[in-house]
Task: inverse folding
């Protein structure tokens, strides 16, 4: 008896979760850059900017 089905489904689930986390991080970073660009275009500057 093999457990290949269980192991493969566990790897697939982990890959889906990790892919979702990466996608969420990319979309969040993109959104933050857009919001920052919008604020800077209105003249609001970051305190950490030189």
Result:
């Amino acid at each position: 008896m093999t457990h290949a089905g269980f192991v493969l489904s566990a790897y697939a689930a982990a890959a889906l979760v990790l892919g979702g986390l990466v996608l969420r991080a990319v979309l969040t970073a993109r959104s933050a850059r857009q919001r920052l660009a919008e604020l800077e275009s209105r003249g609001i500057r970051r305190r950490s900017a030189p």
About this structure: Residues 15-42 form one domain. Helices lie at 4-41. The two ends are 65 Å apart (CA to CA). The mean pLDDT is 91.
